[in-house]
């Protein structure tokens, strides 16, 4: 209303409104306003295009803005506009376009480097994100808290403990304050890399423990099977005046699931809405189903799935099928598989589980039928893979993979290990038939 009362709105005024629309999820109005601005003969400035990008709701619109930047000439090499474009592409998962922009940028700063690293990490391309971080570090650029949060996230998902410890040392050496997000990232990294002791130490060193920090610690304890400690932290968190959120309950329910606290888990699940005003979402239902499946309460888990207020997805049916394989419960397995064949038609693991369940009951015709479905649908089995960090470099190995430059030496060493184990087993008198798989 105020903007409409301006007799001669300037580019600054238009920019402010475009930014306001983009921030409030009214991007289409921001784009209309940009068209109005150009129609009135006003030129865009260095702020217009970044604000216009925030108003875009898809790649096609963003590429349109990109073309405007290129046509303008003046801003095609301006770091603020290019960084905004790069961040936009990353936010929509198009890291290839973002990387092209990044590589061609005549000038880079800490925001640019952090943006491209974060883009790769969010797309789960952790190795490339870490490689870019090394390039950034070697180029002498300043590293800020946001950079470190992204790098720690990559370390957590790759199990790159050595680099994660270097980041921790860098934080201490440069006296960087552990804000809630950075503290939570550090705790999460240590927990996922198997060092729950160091995660606990990091937790103690965070000066202000917001909900992110508590969630990371509770989730880490849950992951390591420390259910009692996780529940203690949950109570302590509330005693310190921190209100739990939806993520907190995922961590707490996961702790109950991993530790077999069935009744406590059900009690916490039902308390979410009653005591905390948090409506359980599909992830919370997934935790409850996982809890029941691990406890062998398959019929109760099935009842939860079919009566929940939202449509169940593969994350709920999958644990039920997996649990059925332990008990060879054919009836429930078939019910789960019926849904999974629609939700995940090419997930090879589901068909393997179903085939094994039939085989356990000696239903060979059904085993053959499942195998025929796999063949007809041309479903390819995804090979297993593992990661290992050596001298700050993360190496990935696939089953039967010979692409690694040291493959010959690795297989030679593996053969020597197998021979040594066989020799040892002869002296100890133990059976060595399981070593043949090596």
UniProtKB/TrEMBL annotation:
Q: Which domain of life is it from?
A: Eukaryota
Question: Its GO biological process terms?
Answer: RNA modification
Q: What GO molecular functions are on record for this protein?
A: RNA binding
Keywords assigned by UniProt?
Repeat
Q: Where are the PPR repeats?
A: 10-44, 109-143, 210-244, 245-280
Database matches in Gene3D superfamilies: Tetratricopeptide repeat domain
Per its UniProt record, what PANTHER family does this chain match? Answer: PENTACOTRIPEPTIDE-REPEAT REGION OF PRORP DOMAIN-CONTAINING PROTEIN, PENTATRICOPEPTIDE REPEAT-CONTAINING PROTEIN
> What protein name is recorded for this chain?
Pentatricopeptide repeat-containing protein
